[in-house]
């Protein structure tokens, strides 16, 4: 499945203003032109290395912008993050401050297309019909650090998620990240931003969970745990906390309740949940190349009855 939107540009949003954007550019017809995925890693061919090189050239072409260190060339598309700082003086482009995102991406597409055509003639690279890239591109305005970290994690793990990638013609499922991204919606923003994809406000249950995770992380640190990850996202779901205690990697499930009317928090970690956590841990170990590391599963039970927190750490819970 591919993104099909009537207009990929966000109506009313000034793409030249200060901010960060997650950008995806796709090959026309989803041809695998940039390489292949082998054992969860992207193996770039010459054309793929060319695409990577031109992406890195953007900072020199448009000096005000910054390219995030997290980007990935996939077999038939590209993901990257662009930071566009606010300039002190307007440019000649319609009075906007800084080079608009559309111009940045268009230059990237033009330069890679020109060199690819040369590669077809001189090096026998596969030919393409019509345009090399799809006419439009996908972008997502990054609103906060939490969203930035989630998108970075997706980019870093994209080759591992290839079987679930919507741009993969042979995809065998759906990616949890795509579902998260579609929860972002357009709503009016005060001041200079008139619109933009913004994640909906957290519901009360999510707020309760976040509060419990904060308390759990603090309690674990007091006990000598080193927190490595919070809300680690995988195609199979999310891990609340990942920590290290000595040489042991600890996968932590946090359960928070306002009382005990419906049972203790730890009782919610049933056999089905335990099996899913084991699968998530396997994914993390492979993604971080930590296969063989000893792993333990802890549960942190948090109760907030009458807003008085009680935190219980249950090591080796299952």
- The name of the CATH topology of the largest domain is Alpha-Beta Plaits
Name the helicity range.
25-40%
Summed up, the helix count is 7
Uncertain runs: 1-11, 87-98, 185-203
How many structural domains can be distinguished in the coordinates? 2
Secondary-structure element string: EEEHHEEEHEHHEEHEEEHEE
At the first level of CATH, the class of the largest domain is Alpha Beta
- Rg, nearest Å: 23 Å
Features:
five-stranded antiparallel sheet; 7 helices; 318 residues; single chain; alpha+beta; Trna Endonuclease, Chain: A, domain 1; five-stranded mixed sheet
Written description of the protein model:
The chain is of the alpha+beta class and 318 residues long. Helix 1 packs antiparallel against helix 3. Helices cover 30% and strands 25% of the residues. The strands form 4 sheets. Strands 1, 4, 5, 6 and 7 form a 5-stranded antiparallel sheet that branches. It has helices spanning 46-56, 58-61, 101-123, 145-157, 176-182, 204-222, 271-287; strands at 19-26, 35-38, 41-44, 66-67, 72-73, 77-84, 138-142, 185-186, 197-198, 226-234, 237-245, 248-257, 295-303, 310-314. The protein starts with 18 loop residues before the first strand and ends with a strand.
Topology of this structure?
Layout: E1 19-26, E2 35-38, E3 41-44, H1 46-56, H2 58-61, E4 66-67, E5 72-73, E6 77-84, H3 101-123, E7 138-142, H4 145-157, H5 176-182, E8 185-186, E9 197-198, H6 204-222, E10 226-234, E11 237-245, E12 248-257, H7 271-287, E13 295-303, E14 310-314
Parallel strand pairs: 12-13
Antiparallel strand pairs: 1-6, 1-7, 2-3, 4-6, 5-6, 8-9, 10-11, 11-12, 13-14
Helix pairs in contact: 1-3
């Amino acid at each position: 499945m591919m993104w099909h939107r009537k207009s990929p540009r966000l109506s009313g949003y000034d793409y030249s203003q200060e901010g960060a954007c997650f950008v995806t550019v796709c090959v026309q017809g989803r041809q695998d032109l940039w390489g292949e995925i082998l054992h969860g890693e992207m193996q770039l061919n010459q054309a793929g290395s060319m695409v990577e090189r031109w992406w890195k050239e953007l900072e020199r072409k448009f000096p005000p912008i910054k390219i995030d260190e997290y980007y990935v060339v996939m077999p038939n598309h590209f993901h990257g993050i662009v930071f566009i700082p606010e300039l002190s003086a307007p440019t000649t482009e319609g009075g906007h401050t800084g080079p608009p995102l559309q111009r940045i991406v268009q230059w990237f597409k033009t330069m890679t297309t020109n060199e690819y055509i040369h590669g077809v003639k001189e090096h026998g690279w596969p030919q393409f019909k019509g345009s090399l890239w799809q006419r439009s591109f996908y972008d997502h305005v990054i609103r906060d650090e939490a969203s930035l970290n989630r998108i970075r994690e997706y980019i870093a793990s994209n080759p591992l998620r290839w079987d679930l990638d919507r741009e993969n013609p042979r995809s065998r499922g759906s990616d949890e990240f795509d579902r998260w991204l579609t929860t972002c919606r357009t709503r009016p923003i005060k001041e200079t931003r008139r619109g933009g994809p913004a994640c909906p406000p957290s519901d009360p249950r999510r707020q309760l969970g976040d509060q419990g995770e904060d308390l759990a992380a603090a309690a674990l640190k007091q006990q000598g745990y080193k927190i490595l990850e919070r809300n680690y996202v995988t195609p199979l779901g999310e891990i609340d906390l990942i920590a290290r205690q000595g040489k042991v990697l600890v996968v932590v499930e946090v359960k928070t309740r306002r009382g005990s009317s419906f049972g203790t928090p730890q009782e919610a970690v049933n056999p089905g949940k335990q099996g899913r956590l084991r699968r998530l841990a396997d994914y993390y170990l492979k993604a971080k190349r930590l296969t063989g590391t000893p792993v333990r599963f802890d549960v942190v039970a948090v109760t907030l009855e009458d807003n008085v927190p009680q935190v219980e750490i249950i090591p080796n819970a299952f």
